[in-house]
From TrEMBL:
Protein name per its UniProtKB record: Cytochrome c oxidase subunit NDUFA4
Pfam families referenced in this protein's UniProt entry, alphabetically: B12D (PF06522)
Organism of provenance: Anoplopoma fimbria (Sablefish)
GO annotations of cellular component type: mitochondrial inner membrane
Location of this chain's protein in the cell: Mitochondrion inner membrane
PANTHER family: CYTOCHROME C OXIDASE SUBUNIT NDUFA4, NADH-UBIQUINONE OXIDOREDUCTASE MLRQ SUBUNIT
Homology family: Belongs to the complex IV NDUFA4 subunit family.
């Protein structure tokens, strides 16, 4: 399989950027899915030791991937009542 791809890339060098960008996009999407699975507060991997993970959310922690103009350090320190 790799020999066929290598042969095609040698005969058509314009395909190299296509392979590069498609591979980079696939790698970035996999990294984002891994980040969602490991860092998202909605995901609970350990039900025995942490059955209600939403009770341990800190209101001063930024859970968004990108926040524009919000300073989380100035928020109240107490958490929500569930």
């Amino acid at each position: 399989m790799l020999a066929v791809v290598r042969k095609q890339l040698k005969s058509h060098p314009a395909l190299i950027p296509l392979f590069f960008f498609i591979g980079g996009g696939a790698a970035m999407s996999m990294m984002y899915l891994a980040r969602l699975a490991l860092r998202n507060p909605d995901v609970c991997w350990d039900r025995k030791n942490n059955p209600e993970p939403w009770n341990k959310l800190a209101p001063t922690h930024q859970y968004k991937f990108y926040a524009v103009n919000l300073d989380y350090s100035k928020l109240k320190k107490e958490g929500p009542d569930f």
